[in-house]
């Protein structure tokens, strides 16, 4: 175990150096003319749950030298991949506290310093609808969205006002307008705030389709739906996930799918990618950041610190009003090393000699378990 940790530490040193060298989103190969907006597509990356347990909060305080909280080092290894995408989406599972009142499981209140760290990593937006969205009531939602706004990170799934809830989050990805919608299966039994039924988006098939169609009418070229769903600690998608995925991807207007990509979170473990009715679905990306995870059997489960980043290359339609097509679908295995307190890109760690092949291979096998390879999904770097 000590030898493995030393190997990982060496790999992390190299990864952090690579993250520091990545300065901005790369949009163009140096020395080549930029393609015209009409011909150019875009890349979208998406990653799993950011779930700061107490140990994660303590680590961020240590990384800040005891003065505040710094989550940037935790995410540094993800920065080269995230920052080079035209559009990068995360899942902010918890709400933010204030004035040092920060807690982990079971009712999370995270330091708001998470938000600028997400921005520094290159994230453009985050889904915020989760079973923890109401851990601190409406006040928690307000603090979270306010902090994301200050950091310049867009958000979808929870709201401070009815008008905000009824307006799709629109993001620019190269020449395309992308709508980001987000929903959760539950709020852990916490009721929606009195008079604010719009505070958190709950999963409802008909509402999701209606919202997607409204976003399309508002000018969205691509509609991305984040769903917080599934059975915790289960590698395979459950029947609710499979059924909802089939129904959402089957929804069409004028022959064009209403939803172009589905991003799943919540299960704590990586789950499969699958092309359903011609649309890519990630059932679960796993936890990008989390402390030591204990499963329902009361046993520490290393799968709770494994995840994947999805990367999709979209090409413009052949004719006006047509669908933006995914021309390349990839996943990148990742792992959160709880000892080092760092996200690890597993392929890069392997290249540096770290003994993490079994972790990478497990993520790969789960991601491909529903036959996505035959539809072109590959493991990226």
TrEMBL record:
**CDD domains in UniProt:** MPP_CapA
Domain Capsule synthesis protein CapA, first and last residues per copy? 43-292
Endpoints of the signal sequence: 1-24
Against Pfam families, the record matches this protein to: PGA_cap (PF09587)
Family matches, as PROSITE patterns: PROKAR_LIPOPROTEIN
* Entry keywords, A to Z: Signal
**What family does the entry list?**
Belongs to the CapA family.
The record ties this protein, via PANTHER family, to: PGA BIOSYNTHESIS PROTEIN CAPA (PTHR33393:SF13), POLYGLUTAMINE SYNTHESIS ACCESSORY PROTEIN RV0574C-RELATED (PTHR33393)
Could you identify this protein by its name?
A: CapA family protein
């Amino acid at each position: 175990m000590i030898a493995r940790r030393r190997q990982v530490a060496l790999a992390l040193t190299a990864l952090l150096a690579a993250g520091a060298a990545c300065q901005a989103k790369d949009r163009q190969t140096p020395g080549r003319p930029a393609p015209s907006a009409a011909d150019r597509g875009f890349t979208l990356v998406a990653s799993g749950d950011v779930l700061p347990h107490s140990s994660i909060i303590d680590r961020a305080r240590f990384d800040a030298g005891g003065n505040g909280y710094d989550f940037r080092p935790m995410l540094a290894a993800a920065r080269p991949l995230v920052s080079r995408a035209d559009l990068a989406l995360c899942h902010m599972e918890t709400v933010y506290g204030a004035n040092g009142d920060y807690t982990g499981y079971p009712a999370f209140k995270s330091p708001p310093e998470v938000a600028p760290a997400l921005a520094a990593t290159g994230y453009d937006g985050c889904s915020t609808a989760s079973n923890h969205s109401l851990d601190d009531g409406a006040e928690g939602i307000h603090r979270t969205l306010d902090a994301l706004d200050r950091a310049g990170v867009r958000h979808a799934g929870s709201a401070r006002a009815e008008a905000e809830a009824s307006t799709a989050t629109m993001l620019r990805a190269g020449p395309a307008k992308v709508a980001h919608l987000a929903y959760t299966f539950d709020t852990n039994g916490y009721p929606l705030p009195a008079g604010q039924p719009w505070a958190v988006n709950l999963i409802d098939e008909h509402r999701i389709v209606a919202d997607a169609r409204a976003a399309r009418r508002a000018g969205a070229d691509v509609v991305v739906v984040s769903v917080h769903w599934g059975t915790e600690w289960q590698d395979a998608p459950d029947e609710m996930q499979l059924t909802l995925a089939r129904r959402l991807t089957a929804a069409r207007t004028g022959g064009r799918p209403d939803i172009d990509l589905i991003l799943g979170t919540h299960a704590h473990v990586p789950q499969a990618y699958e092309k359903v009715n011609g649309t890519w679905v990630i059932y679960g990306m796993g936890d990008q950041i989390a402390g030591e995870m204990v499963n329902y059997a009361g046993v520490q489960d290393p799968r709770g610190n494994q995840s994947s980043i999805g990367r999709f290359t979209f090409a413009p339609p052949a004719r006006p009003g047509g669908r933006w097509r995914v021309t390349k679908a990839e996943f990148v295995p990742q792992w959160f090393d709880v000892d080092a307190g760092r996200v690890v890109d597993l392929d890069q760690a392997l290249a540096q000699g770290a003994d993490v092949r079994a972790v990478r291979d497990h993520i790969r096998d789960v991601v491909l378990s529903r036959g996505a390879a035959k539809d072109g999904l590959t493991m990226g770097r």
